[in-house]
Specification:
It is built from 3 helices and 5 strands, in the order E-H-H-E-H-E-E-E. Strands 2-1-3-4-5 form a 5-stranded antiparallel β-sheet. The protein has one domain. By secondary structure, it is an alpha+beta fold.
Amino acid sequence: MIRYTYTIDQLRDMPEDNIRRLFLDFEATVRFFNAVDLSRYYTVDSGTIEAPEPEIACERLFRLYNSDERPAGYTGRSMSVSDVVNLWDNSVEPPKKSTWFCDSIGFKRLEVTP
């Protein structure tokens, strides 16, 4: 089991262009906007989670943030399509980061340049 540090990012409050981006799946986001623009997101929560691999960590976070047992003090909306999960794999030094787009089914890994 790997312990991941995570952040959950959601689109910033809603200039008109972000409203069109909200809840679009990956394919539609790329078709209409050419890419996922991470500068339009802000972090709504962070923490740690254990999972055997990143995709399972994302799925566990999705279930957690769509339940009545969200972490104390969480004020974001439920996790849904267009949200982004950043994971740091703490089993390696330095921790390795991966970024995941919440798609209509599952998660799509984003290629992010440092």
